[in-house]
Amino acid sequence: MTRVIDFRLRPPLHSYLKTAIWEKAGFTRFNRLQGVEPAPSVVAQSVDLMFREMDEANIEIGVMNGRQCTDFRGEVTNADLAEICNLYPGRFYAQAGVNPFRGKQSEKEADSFIRDYGFKGIAIDPGGYEEHMHADDERLFGFYEVCLKHDYPAVLTLGPMGGNGIHFGGALQVDRLAARFPDLKIVVSHGCWPYALELCGVVARRPNVYLMPDMYHVGLPGEEHYTRAISTVAQERFVFASAYPSRPLGVAVDGYKSLGLSENHLADVLWNTAARLLKLNSD
Question: How is the chain classified by DSSP, letter by letter?
Fold first, then answer.
């Protein structure tokens, strides 16, 4: 049985419940965009049901992304994430949320939560701050330096829903960023959808870029590009994520099992690549 790490899982706890994805209109919209219905745990906002669904899907670890956004995405505090990790040790890991408009203090906070609380990287929402920006904006460089310092990834949310126009989710910014920071591990959440083929081209060029299309992969236009990348340009650089509550956990895992991947490629997608990024073998 293949073990699973879900690299983008937002549980119904603490400040997550104050964000748009946990409002009924929010999670319903994102699920139905993919042609699926919200999971029972989401409808009930039940942690117990969520853990049951995780167990049924063989998801051993969920990775939470912090947020300090000023648009509809809202804020999920790093303190809340640390408390959740403490409540459920080994079941959750966290990536620090940041905001470049809060100055050096935001960089220091991220550094502290990685160093002192065991966070596993930084989550960045370029299109969700006071001013929309691209991922290679110089105002974000300090956060990338923190990631390099600790050898953990920068996880970029780049997709169609955020920012002032769909172009803020495009792939060219990732290519520029990867060239500027060739040693930085860059995980692209939402896979720059709908620019699937373009991002696959960036991954082919830049060995420090990782694909994570999460809710925008199985069953949506562009599926064939992301799927083909798993065994070609993104070998050992493709990360599974459900984007729960935006996609049911079991549906997400079963979707990848239905893609016809080899046993080795499936294991890399569902566990091995994420485990390396999180440095679980060294913990």
Answer: ---EEESSB--S-GGGGGSGGGSHHHHHHHHHHTT-PPPHHHHHT-HHHHHHHHHHTTEEEEEEE-EE-SSTT-EE-HHHHHHHHHHSTTTEEEEEE--GGGTHHHHHHHHHHHHHH----EEE-TTSSSS---TT-GGGHHHHHHHHHHT--EEEE-SSSSSSSGGGG-SHHHHHHHHH-TTS-EEEEGGGTT-HHHHHHHHHH-TTEEEE-GGGSTTSTTHHHHHHHHTTTTTT-B-----BTSS-HHHHHHHHHTT---HHHHHIIIIIHHHHHHTGGG-
